[in-house]
Amino acid sequence: MPTVLVTGASRGIGRSIAEHLADRGWDVYAGVRNPRDGEAIAASRPQRISPVTLDVTSDADVSALDTALPERLDAVVNNAGIAVGGAVETLSRDDWRKQLEVNVIGQFAVTQAVLPRIRRAGGRIVFISSVNGRLSMPLIGAYSASKFALEAGADALRMELSPWRIPVVVIQPAQTDTDMWRTADDMVVELEETLSSEYRELYARHIAGMKKSIPTSQRIAVPTDRVSALVERALTARRPRARYIVGAGPKLQVGLVSRLPTPVRDRILRRVSAQP
Known about the structure:
Helix content is about 55%, strand content about 10%. It has about 280 residues and is of the alpha/beta class. The chain has a single domain, classed as Rossmann fold (3-Layer(aba) Sandwich). The N and C termini lie far apart (about 55 Å).
């Protein structure tokens, strides 16, 4: 049976991917930060899912993969990720470090650790990115920057691994029905509370616009199984694409908006996100 490591598998997109692949005959190693989450996901598919304690920012956890995984690995799905919100001016160095450590450095650390196993199996590497890896938006600049960086690294890796015919695939979801989007209202309130009084006044209209746009994003969020299905396609297609965008709407959005002159694109994206 094919084997796969899925990072960030405790909930949301990661859990959906792990369960989807398990249902289709894959032996899944589910990377989770909390052992209790590992027990929960293993109980959902006890014959197919094995939990692995894995904080992608922990050198010890990444090193421990050497003893936790089989000698051959058919795929790794780098899904673990977080979103640090806020205007770029308001973000601290620690905010930037946290965002990049999880979404970029941790992804490539895991990939580096398992690559010998992938090479032995003639396997594949998948990164879960975002349409924000192609289009940056106000108030999620750090998140967008992390996804742009992730995609740049994935492009380089794909070219570097071409002599071994190891596909490197990027999946780009848009709004997805996960805990992050369901609790987005709370996230914005917390974001506002962390700002100094000066920044709260300066960016009051930005934050109000973000609050206004959230219900629309929640309504158009797609089920996680749409992402999981594309991951399966990336892992099983004879000649997988370098990129898959989840959904016809986001595909059209990226295709059209990314080709517009920068001033026009900026106006459209500011309007879509209800920004001043």
